[in-house]
Design the sequence.
């Protein structure tokens, strides 16, 4: 087809569409803080479908050209749990607050896996989408957020497996289902907060790429994944207990474990963790917004 | 507001030079900065010392400053200016890729630009998935893409492969699909930056052709081009950007004339005094001129006669410069690239150490250029070293009609070049008639 022809065709199409034009909206590009904020929310609303598209893309791309495909989602936490149970449970003989080894570690690996994936993914998302960001506008916050939400699918599969194992070992209680939504909320807020801050930072400083895996590893040690929280609380004076909430993942992990015992989580620490997680989220969004404007010029 | 499609008020964009001061910013450097700042402030607070003078700010420059303009709905507006005048920055702000430092833009409707073609395509995804992905990235709603999907695919002629990952597409199919999505975007405002347009010549031409048609369809178009003819032909109104400011506004042909006049004046200014040059400057071109067939400095030369482009350079410091290559890029008045002249091309290399002050000559026998005004750029680089000096539109010369073929016949003045040619006609066996 000749170029001319293609061009003509294109225009005919464009002309056709103009007749059924959708509501024409006004865009304001400004340096004024209030106007920028208004436009930011308007964009979020306008681009909500792009958000879904990005989630889809991330899910589709992840397991394409893998032999085992989605089996990886199940395999990874299972194998890790097996290794933990063997090394920390059988060899190091870490206490498990009376829970079976596999359940004790799976209850921690399941949320932790999702968190580390979303934090790492979000942190590197600006860089891996640089080609896009420097060529076309959309609210940049959509990219890391979509990545975090995409890990929900992994989590959902992990959670189903968790319930299955719990039932198999006779530890299934309705409390597991009851506590889940709040724990997921805490976990997501924390992942988004840290992920967004790192993503904005990584656009300028590639040190983040080097550091993020290390950071996630450190965070894991700070989270009661391989040890029970009771051990930590035992060593701390009473007044220091609330500080456990500084790492909201502690409450998440312990929340699932208490569900396994047929108890509802420790309200105090969990609600405090929720507040802290919200603070992380707000700080992350604030920092991201602050840096967002300059992202393109430095990425 | 209703008839105004784009309203730009006092727009400015400031960039920081990313030069020697901060070659690659690292977290450590910024942390050190912070520590220093705190220390300074701490000292000030604790000891009551006079505040030390503020640390030297990195150099900033304004790519755009105080730009205000209105574009009416359905208007086609051209934007011209030399390289670095701020055209691309302006389009980048308007398409919201980057943010302004000051000022405000309001526009109505959806903005699209042809330079976004194919952005966001993912190799692993199928054609179908990519249409949806790319469409949403460009700002289309899902139901809109669904509605247009068949048209997009038919237009790109990839029906058979629509469920194949695009990494198996030929480059032609890939570009067609990408272009097709962009063409169905149905924007209210179209931005065209030909300077940034990637792709081969055919593709650029396609963009231009689309543009031409969109213009007729009554859309608002903002058009940045180096092709002055296109500006004059397509635009209703034109802005001349110079140094990040709007220097002039008016009818396209008037603005183009002014632009050309300014370019001429620039090439007439003393080369030594010009600051708008690139390269690390171990040598600098200090003068340039053109000599005619008799070896005299001339403002004009004749088609078909010998001519010479001369450039003088000086070394700016004591360093020895070896293996110099020099190139003069030749352009027409309207910035059509004619050809590159370079000693590296002909193999006449200046090997070994070159003199500290030198004269470079490029002889063009039987000048094959037709009547008109030509500009040339000066460019020098040393082997194993970067660009030494690069001056755009360093000089210009006129070409008068001349007897190129030695027949006294002068061809159409609209043709750019004349070529030596030989003709013959001979008999061939007549085809058998049955």
Sequence:
């Amino acid at each position: 087809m000749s170029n001319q022809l293609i061009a003509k065709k294109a225009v005919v199409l464009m002309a056709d569409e103009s007749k059924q034009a959708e509501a024409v909206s006004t865009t304001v590009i400004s340096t004024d803080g209030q106007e920028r904020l208004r436009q930011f929310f308007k964009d979020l609303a306008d681009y909500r479908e792009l958000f879904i598209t990005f989630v889809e893309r991330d899910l589709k791309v992840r397991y394409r050209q893998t032999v085992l495909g989605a089996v990886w989602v199940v395999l990874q936490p299972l194998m890790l749990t097996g290794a933990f149970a063997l090394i920390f449970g059988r060899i190091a003989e870490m206490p498990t607050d009376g829970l079976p080894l596999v359940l004790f570690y799976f209850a921690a690996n399941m949320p932790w896996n999702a968190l580390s994936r979303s934090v790492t993914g979000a942190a590197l998302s600006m860089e891996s989408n640089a080609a896009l960001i420097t060529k076309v506008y959309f609210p940049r916050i959509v990219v890391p957020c979509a990545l975090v939400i995409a890990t929900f699918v992994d989590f959902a599969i992990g959670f189903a497996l968790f319930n299955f194992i719990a039932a198999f070992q006779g530890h299934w209680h309705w409390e597991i289902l009851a506590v889940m939504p709040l724990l997921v909320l805490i976990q997501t807020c924390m992942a988004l907060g840290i992920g967004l801050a790192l993503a904005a930072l990584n656009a300028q400083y590639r040190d983040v790429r080097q550091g993020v895996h290390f950071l996630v590893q450190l965070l894991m040690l700070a989270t009661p994944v391989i040890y029970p929280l009771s051990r930590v609380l035992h060593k701390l004076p009473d007044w220091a207990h609330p500080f456990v909430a500084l790492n909201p993942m502690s409450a998440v992990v312990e929340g699932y474990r208490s569900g396994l015992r047929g108890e509802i989580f420790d309200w105090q620490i969990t609600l405090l963790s929720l507040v802290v997680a919200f603070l992380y989220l707000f700080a992350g969004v604030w920092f991201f917004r602050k840096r967002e404007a300059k992202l393109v010029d430095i990425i | 507001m209703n008839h105004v499609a784009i309203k730009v008020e006092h727009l400015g964009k400031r960039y920081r030079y990313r030069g020697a001061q901060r070659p690659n910013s690292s977290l450590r450097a910024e942390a050190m900065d912070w520590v220093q700042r705190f220390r300074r402030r701490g000292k000030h607070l604790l000891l009551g010392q006079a505040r030390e003078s503020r640390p030297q700010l990195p150099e900033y420059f304004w790519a755009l400053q105080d730009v205000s303009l209105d574009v009416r709905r359905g208007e086609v507006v051209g934007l011209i200016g030399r390289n670095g005048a701020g055209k691309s920055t302006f389009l980048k702000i308007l398409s919201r890729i980057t943010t302004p430092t000051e000022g405000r833009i309001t526009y109505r409707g959806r903005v699209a630009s042809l330079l976004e073609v194919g952005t966001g395509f993912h190799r692993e995804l199928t054609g179908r998935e990519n249409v949806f992905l790319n469409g949403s990235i460009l700002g289309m709603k899902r139901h809109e893409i669904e509605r247009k999907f068949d048209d997009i695919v038919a237009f790109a002629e990839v029906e058979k492969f629509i469920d194949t990952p695009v990494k198996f597409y030929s480059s032609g199919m890939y570009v067609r699909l990408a272009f097709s999505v962009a063409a169905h975007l149905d924007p209210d405002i179209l931005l065209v930056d030909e300077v940034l347009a990637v792709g081969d010549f055919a593709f650029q031409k396609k963009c231009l052709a689309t543009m031409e048609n969109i213009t007729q369809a009554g859309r608002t178009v903002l058009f940045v081009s180096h092709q002055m003819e296109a500006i004059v032909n397509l635009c209703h109104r034109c802005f001349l950007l110079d140094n990040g400011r709007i220097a002039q506004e008016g009818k396209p042909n008037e603005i183009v004339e002014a632009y050309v006049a300014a370019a001429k004046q620039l090439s007439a200014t003393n080369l030594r005094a010009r600051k708008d040059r690139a390269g690390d400057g171990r040598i600098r071109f200090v003068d340039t001129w053109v000599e005619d067939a008799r070896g005299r400095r001339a403002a004009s030369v004749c088609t078909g006669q010998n001519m010479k482009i001369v450039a003088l350079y000086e070394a700016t410091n004591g360093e020895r410069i070896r293996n110099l290559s020099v190139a003069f890029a030749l352009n027409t008045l309207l910035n059509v690239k004619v050809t590159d002249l370079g000693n590296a091309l002909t193999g006449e290399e200046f090997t070994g150490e070159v003199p500290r002050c030198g004269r470079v000559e490029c002889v063009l026998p039987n000048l094959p250029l037709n009547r008109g005004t030509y500009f040339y750029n000066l460019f020098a680089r040393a082997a194993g070293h970067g660009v030494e000096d690069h001056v755009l539109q360093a000089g210009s010369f006129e070409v008068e009609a001349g007897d190129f073929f030695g027949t006294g016949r002068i061809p159409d003045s609209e043709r750019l070049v004349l070529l030596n040619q030989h003709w013959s006609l001979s008999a061939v066996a007549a085809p058998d008639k049955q």
Summary: The domain at 63-261 of chain B is CATH 3.40.50.300 (Rossmann fold).
